[in-house]
Each structure stands twice: as C-alpha cells, then as structure tokens.
Amino acid sequence: MKLLGLVATLTLILDQLSKWLVVHVMSLAQKGEIAVFPPFLQFRMAWNYGINFGLLSGERDATRWVLIAVAVGIVLLVLGWLRRDPPGRLGFVSAGLLIGGAVGNVIDRILYGAVADFLNMSCCGIDNPFAFNVADIAIFAGAIGLVLFSGQGEDAKSAEDGGSGSSGKNGS
Predict the structure, then answer these.
(1) Integer Cα distance of 36 and 28 in angstroms
(2) Res 85: pLDDT
(3) Predicted confidence (pLDDT) at residue 2 exceeds the cutoff of 70
(4) Is 45 inside a domain boundary?
C-alpha cells in the first residue's frame, strides 16, 4: 500500500502542478490556446463541467457534487478491493495512478466548479476539438492497468510458495 500512496501522491502533484502552471502562470484561461508543438500538441483551455467530453454538463452545480461523490466512491471501492485482494506491484502502481488522477479532478471540481482540461492533440489534418489533462491520462492508464494486473498478487504469492498456493511447504 506504500507504493500505491507514493504513486497516487506523485500523480496528484504532477496533475495539480501542471494545471496551476498552464491555467495561472501561462494564463491559458485568458489566452484560450497556446501552440506547443503544432499541429500535434496544443494547450487549449476547456472547463469540463460534466464527465468525458463534457457529457452530463447540464445541471452544473448538481452534476458537480454528484461527480465528486462518484469519484470519492470509486476511490473507496478500489481501496477496499485492494485490501481484500492485493495485487502485485503493477496493480498497486495502476491503482495509485487511478486514485491520484481521480483526486486531482475532484480538487478541480471543488476549487473551480469544473475540471481544467488543457491538453489537445491533433494529427494528420484531423482537428480534435477535445482536451484532457494529466489526471485523465492517469485514470485511463490506471484503469487499464488494474484490468491487466489485478490478479498478479495471488499468482506472485503462489510462485513464491513453490506453486502450492498455500504455506510454502511442498509436502516433503
């Protein structure tokens, strides 16, 4: 669980630091858009009041608190699941990414009333209208990692026990 806490903390710091730099120091909220590595990467300010791609952004205040509650609930469910069935190292890293990202977006909703999205990637003549942030990347990577690596805790323990899956004694 220490690894989970470390990864979650580092993810949260990176997310909030990147948002602070882009929104406040670089004044993206006022500029709207900054070309970083055109046409592939731009900073494009987007306040997301809903979920992915602005879905459910109608009733802003109600949606804000519902989404905060959902994010906190997911974090608590993941922590409970990890306590019940601890994964291997990569599972804890994945959970740390997911939790750090979720907490980062919750902080945005509390501070700003919306999530600060600013990364916009386009390519090959396709102008992507959507933006995302470091927390979104971490949540996505963490969720995929949990799917891929969640069962490795028992496998690793079984391998250490000599494949017996019990106390490590092989009946000799």
Answers:
(1) 12
(2) 86
(3) yes
(4) yes
pLDDT in tens, 133-159: 999 999 999 999 999 988 765 544 443
User: Tokens at residue 97, please?
Assistant: 């990414």
Q: Which domain holds residue 84?
A: 2-156
Token digits of residue 41: 């990467």
Residues labelled as active-site residues: 117, 136
**Phi then psi dihedrals of residue 6, to 5 deg:** -65, -50
Domain presence at residue 172: no
Q: What tokens were used for 95? A: 């959970």
* 62-115: pLDDT as tens digits: 777 888 989 999 999 999 999 998 889 999 999 999 999 999 999 999 999 999
Could you tell me if 118 and 45 are in contact, meaning their C-beta atoms sit under 8 angstroms apart?
Answer: yes
pLDDT over 50 (residue 170): no
CB within 8 Å of 169: residues ≥ 6 apart: none
**Strands 41-48, 115-121: pairing kind:** antiparallel
In a domain, 97, yes or no: yes
